[in-house]
Please model this.
Amino acid sequence: MAWLCAEYIADEMLRTGALVEQGSLEYRAGRQTLALTIYLCDGADELAGIRAVSRIDEWLSFTSYGHPWPEWAEERLAARQERERDLGEGADPDLALALDAWRWLRQTELLAADLGESEPWHPAGPMDVPVDECAQIWTPAWQLGLPLSHLAIHLF
Model:
C-alpha cells in the first residue's frame, strides 16, 4: 500500500504542475522518480504520504541539483531488501514495485535535449545562455525524471 500511496502523491504533483503530457514516457519518468523518492523517504513502517505536506522540503532536497540521487536510491533500496531478508516474513509487495520502478528508470533511455556541459539549471551559471534544443542525446529515464520531480514539488 505504501508504494501505491507514493505513486498517487507523485501523480497528483505532476498533474498539478502540468510540466509534461500525461501518458508520455517523460511523465512516467517523473512519476516513477518522484514516487521512488517519496517511498524511500518514509520509514520502513510508515505509510507513504501520511505526512506528505511536512515532507515536501525533504523531497526537494533529495531531488535537487547536485544531490547523488541514484546512489541514495540504491542505498535505500538495498537497506530495505536487507531488512526484508532479516525479518523473513516473505516478499514485500511495496518493495517489489519500488524495485521494478528503479529497474525501469535505470534501463529505459529517453531522448532529451543535450545540455552539454553548460548545466543551465545550476544556480552559479549564467541565466541567459541559450540551450540548443535540437541537439539531443539518449539519457536514462531517472535523469529526466529527477528535474521534473523537483519542479513538480515546487509547483505543488
